[in-house]
Amino acid sequence: MVNGARHLGFFFRERDADNNLVCDTWDGERKYKLLNLLEFDSTRKRMTVVVRTPENKVLVICKGADSIIEKRLRKGQVNLKRTQNFLDNYAKQGLRTLLIASKEISEA
Q1: HEC states along the chain?
Q2: What is the mean pLDDT of residues 29-46?
Q3: Mean predicted confidence (pLDDT) in 83-106
Q4: C-beta of residue 3 within 8 angstroms of C-beta of residue 9
Q5: Backbone phi, psi, residue 94, to 5°
Q6: pLDDT exceeding 70 applies to what percent of the chain?
């Protein structure tokens, strides 16, 4: 996943002294303010971060097992048929898969 993101031009560089997540992207450096972190655990089978973007938007970003993330996607918003074919093929090869989902939320 990390290599794939880097290949597409997105690379996590560091956390700075203000706890910002500093990333190198195709648009240059971007800093995301880490607002909250829900660590991965075997019950939730996912990890979640809440960040403030450079545009002052609040995003919830979650990565986890495909079976867990898929259940939490809004019905009809995303067509997972093509993605599911990739996931099935990877599983047949014995590879673990993860999905990433995000949602912009209000300040409230």
Answers
A1: CHHHHHHCCCEEEEECCCCEEEEEECCEEEEEEEEEEECCCCCCCEEEEEEECCCCCEEEEEEEEHHHHHHCCCCCCCCCHHHHHHHHHHHHCCCCCEEEEEEEECCC
A2: 91
A3: 89
A4: no
A5: 85, 15
A6: 97
CA angle 61, 63, 65 (to 5 degrees): 150
Cα-based torsion angle of the residue sequence 34, 10, 12, 40 in order, rounded to the nearest 10 degrees = 60
Q: Could you tell me the residue ranges of all domains in the chain? A: 2-105
Cα dihedral 77/103/11/28 (nearest 10): 100
CATH number, span 2-105: 3.40.1110.10
Q: What mean pLDDT do residues 33-47 have?
A: 91
- When pLDDT is averaged across residues 6-31 and rounded to a whole number, the result is 90
